[in-house]
Amino acid sequence: MPDSSSPRVAMHETSETALLHSLAPMLIQWLPRQRWFAGKGSPVDDVTLVAATELLPCANGSATPGLLHLLVQAHQPDASDCYQLLLGVRPVLPPGLAPALIGRPSEGPLRDRAIYDAVSDPRLTALLLERLRAPGRLGALRFVRQPGSAIPSGLRPRPLRAEQSNSSVIYGNTYILKLFRRVSPGINPDLELPLALARTGCVRVPEPVAWFEAPATDPLTLGVLQPYLPGTSDGWQLALRALAKRVDFTAAARSLGRATAEVHTALASALPTSALPGPQLEALAIGMNDRLEAAAESVPALRPYRTGLRHAFAAVTDLARSGHGCQVQRIHGDLHLGQVLRAATGSGRGSRWTLIDFEGEPAKPLSDRRRPQPVLRDIAGMLRSFDYAACQRGATDWSREWAAANRAAYCAGYADAAGTDPREHVALLRAYETDKAIYEVVYEAHHRPTWLPIPLSAIRRLAEPPRRPAP
Predict the structure, then answer these.
(1) 8 Å CB contact between 389 and 405
(2) Which residues of 393-412 are buried (b: 16+ CB within 10 A; e: fewer)?
(3) In contact, 20 and 30? CB cutoff 8 Å
(4) Does the pLDDT at position 40 exceed 90?
(5) Do residues 266 and 197 touch, judged by C-beta distance below 8 A?
(6) Which neighbouring-strand residues pair with 414?
């Protein structure tokens, strides 16, 4: 929630009150239905206005569309979150924009005009690119462009339909603008980390070209413009194709491990690192165990495995109490096969992986997502992703062997570039993988029950005692 230093409404107080009064009933109904709304399953009790800026005039009587930027606080029984909205205003909505309609206010400054989600309107999203081309302050917003960057004009925008926690607009085949929907004070990691990596010369992550924010003591990052990478496929689709054709994927998995290690190494050189002492490592294990107990209360299918799963966290506690700690640094925070892209090299003899979406898990507070953590958390997320891919068409002996081979290849590739093999840190890697699988069980039980057997198959494996290495 924005603090007292957050940007205030860039409108007259009377206009602010009238605008909110007219829009609030529609937004209360519309917000919970959006894919990116975080408070699913709970009604919105009230909406308050944090800031409003007219990017294009929205006055009545105009035949041209208006564009209104809002930051609103959505109040729910157990939460209160700030959301970014881009609202188009038209007297008549074209048929192609009908699905984006929010409503028509019966009173207030926008009375009887169609209010809709402007992300679907290329005429209005084109204006955002123009604002980023000419940086500066406009009302409650500040537009920033990287020094030396040149953004061409006239690039045709189109929304990316696959987004869930945010919204994205592609401009031509040149740039992609990510619009953060749920926002908090502080720089978003999806801007902070790629900027830091660019300073190191790391080419595994697209460098931000421009961004915009709500300036304050602790600015709110609202959108980031980065190069778009046409002709690439994400790792999830590539893995599924390999599984469908029953072809080897280990070379790609190994090169992905190397790419991950390169990014981790660059982040460690660009941003502070520290040691996590024993007491904090023990606290980390306690937190994992607490999440297990809460998950088992929520999902009965998890309860038979609680005792076995606790052993993974107890092993980390034993390490901590024996004086062991671990290094922590900035990491990706939500790494899986859907967060990596690959394109063929110019010679056609290989491929290059790119890591994207450094926002972390959007459901977590921004302060948690910016906290240094062990790199094993990222690695465990990718290992779980190989399991998920292998189980998409049912778990068979062949698919399980496929997953095991690619998990091993990924770790070997990481060791190639980092100099240390993640599998050497048995206890902590197993604990992170267990914690991730528990999270997946809760998510699938609540959102995709038909997918629940996928993480449960991992839970059964992780609840068994670890195999001792052969002499």
Answers:
(1) no
(2) eeeeeebeebbebbbbbbbb
(3) no
(4) no
(5) yes
(6) none
Token pair of 27 as six digits: 């937004």
The CATH number that domain 124-134+142-227 falls under is: 3.30.200
In 124-196, which ranges are E strands?
136-138, 141-145, 157-160, 166-171, 175-180, 182-183
- Give CA 268 to chain center in angstroms: 21
Residue-wise pLDDT for 144-200, tens only, equals 999 989 999 999 999 998 767 899 999 999 999 999 999 999 999 999 999 999 999
Q: Which residue has the tokens 């908090």?
A: 184
Give me the DSSP letters along 179-223.
EESEE-SB--HHHHHHHHHHHHT--SSPPP-EEEEE-SSSPEEEE
Indicate the pTM of the whole model.
0.91
From 265, 309, 346, select the one nearest 458 (Cα to Cα).
Answer: 309
Quick one: how far is CA 359 from the chain centroid?
Answer: 4
So what CATH class is 233-462? alpha beta
Are residues 258 and 205 in contact, defined by beta-carbon separation less than 8 angstroms? no
pLDDT number for residue 163: 66
Are 105 and 113 within 8 A, CB to CB?
yes
Using CA atoms, how far apart are residues 146 and 420, in angstroms rounded to an integer?
36
Extents of the domains making up the chain: 13-121, 124-134+142-227, 233-462
For 87-138, what is each residue's pLDDT tens digit?
Answer: 999 999 999 999 999 999 999 889 999 999 999 999 999 999 999 999 999 9
Amino acid 164: pLDDT: 76
**Rounded CA gap, 254 and 241, in Å?**
17
Give the whole-angstrom CA distance, residue 360 versus residue 272: 18
| pLDDT at residue 11 tops 70 | no
